[in-house]
Design brief:
- The complex is a heterodimer of chains A (about 350) and B (about 90).
- With about 350 residues, chain A is of the alpha/beta class.
- Chain A is built from twelve helices and twelve strands.
- A six-stranded mixed sheet of chain A has the order 5-6-7-8-11-10, with helices on one face. A four-stranded parallel sheet of chain A has the order 1-4-2-3. Chain A has a two-stranded antiparallel sheet with strand order 9-12.
- Helices cover about 15% and strands about 40% of the residues of chain B.
- Chain B has three helices and eight strands.
- The longest helix of chain B has 6 residues.
- The chains are: A alpha/beta (about 350), B alpha+beta (about 90).
- Chains A and B meet through α7, α11 and α12 of A and β3, β4, β5, β7 and β8 of B.
């Protein structure tokens, strides 16, 4: 049976496979690294694309008329591509999985992989996408459908995509190299027992939007590459940010990730100590950032770093990605996964 | 006491919730109850935070009444430059 893509927010009657999202009515298999996803344990992986690979490698493809994903991003796109073009995908599976990884975790050392991840990601961003005005005229769900239908048929010719859209990867790659140079002047320290990396410098990075940006205007790919921790403290002169990475939101399997702590009480307490108010995106956010609203703090940086580490060491875990799920659209009744459980 | 029905038909106990929040769809995710508005997860509310304020969490997954929520507090000791993290319930501090 040929499997075809169908929009996620459709009325579902036929058997379907869901990738990088929560299950729908009629879902016979979910392959997703989302927190609490009902992905069969034998197919759990850092990216949903790698989950699809594990199935294609080890099992017969289950019978389903449709495959779907709720949202456009690089991992969802490549997961769908793997289903629709399994031969092309399997021929270069490492490359495709790496692109999905780079897109989701904003971290990959090889430039071609990063360039493609940046380009595919930017195609979905109305502020830079060549389809920007069309995308802004559509609702969110329609945007995702448009992007999948436009990009999936051309993805196998990915070198052409890079040639066609240099403006979508060039600025990011330039910033990556500038960030690499800046990071060489910084002190990078890891505290593995609390899964924290600290990047500090007496100098501020040069660039725009330093005060408003969660990465202080630096390229997240370059920062994430030198930071091992699932939580990064970036302290440059009197500017400080604390980022909880995507690795601590999803079901990440290739290394143990320390459970996220809710930083909102710390945010409130720091606002009381500092001349500046602090803000925090919430433990439930995908990549929340704790930082002074103005970007700068009046508190001593060394002391601040000590307090942030002490809080993370003593606060209880608040986000458990492996616990059960019920997402919107998940219908009553259990999808049948029995054929895919490894005995 | 009220009950809030989750998207799978499961329910949790609550004391009260504004009409706007009751209209949203709530689901269990990563051990919490959250409401996800956007498929890209750009707008997520956390039920414990909405009911009990920042640093709240439910130790019983079926009970989100205010008196049943735990609360992470920062307790400042003698020096204003040091603290301890304390877990308590709102009823204990009222």
């Amino acid at each position: 049976m040929n499997t075809t893509y169908r929009p996620y927010f459709s009325e579902w009657a036929d058997a379907n496979i869901v990738v990088d999202s929560g299950p729908r009515a009629g879902t016979v298999l979910t392959l997703s690294h989302w927190p609490s996803s009902p992905t069969p344990p034998c197919f759990l992986a850092d990216t949903s694309a790698e989950s699809v690979f594990l199935l294609l490698r080890d099992q017969e493809i289950p019978c389903a008329k449709y495959v779907t994903a709720s949202h456009y991003d690089v991992d969802a796109l490549i997961s769908l591509f793997a289903w629709l073009h399994p031969n092309i995908f399997m021929k270069s599976h490492d490359f495709w999985i790496n692109v999905a990884y780079a897109g989701d975790f904003e971290c990959f050392p090889e430039s071609k992989t990063r360039m493609l991840a940046r380009t595919l990601d930017s195609l979905g961003d109305p502020s830079v996408s060549p389809w920007g005005s069309l995308l802004t005229s559509l609702g969110k769900a329609e945007q995702h459908v448009f992007l999948f239908e436009e990009i999936l048929p051309t993805l196998s010719n990915w070198p052409d995509i890079l040639k066609k859209y240099p403006d979508l990867w060039n600025p990011g790659e330039n910033l990556y190299h500038m960030t690499e140079l800046f990071l060489r002047t910084c002190n990078v320290r890891h505290v593995p027992e609390i899964d924290i990396s600290i990047i500090s410098s007496d100098r501020l990075p040069v660039g725009e939007d330093i005060d408003a940006d969660p990465y202080s205007g630096l390229d997240p790919y370059a920062v994430n590459e030198v930071a091992n921790g699932s939580l990064i403290i970036m302290a440059f002169e009197n500017s400080i940010r604390i980022v909880q990475r995507y690795e601590s939101w999803v079901r990440y399997v290739s290394r143990p990730i320390r459970y996220r702590r809710d930083l909102s009480p710390l945010s409130k307490w720091l606002s009381e100590q500092d001349d500046a108010a602090w803000s925090y995106g919430g433990i439930q956010a995908v990549t929340p950032c704790l930082m002074p609203v103005s970007g700068r703090t009046s508190l001593p940086i060394k002391w601040l770093i000590e307090q942030i580490c002490a809080y993370n060491a003593s606060a209880p875990p608040g986000w458990h990605p492996n616990l059960e799920m019920t997402l919107p659209g998940h219908q009553m009744g259990q999808p049948s996964h029995s054929n895919f459980e490894r005995s | 006491m009220k009950t809030l029905t989750l998207s799978n038909g499961d329910f949790v106990k609550i004391d009260n919730l504004s009409e706007n929040l009751l209209k949203r769809s709530w689901s269990r995710l990563a051990g919490r109850v959250v409401s996800i508005k956007s498929p890209t997860f750009s707008d997520i509310l956390d039920l414990a935070t909405e009911i009990g304020g920042p640093g709240s969490f439910a130790s019983n997954p079926g009970d989100y009444r205010k008196c049943a929520l735990n609360h992470i507090l920062i307790e400042t000791e003698k020096s204003p430059l040091s603290f301890q993290v304390k877990i308590t319930k709102p009823q204990d501090t009222d």
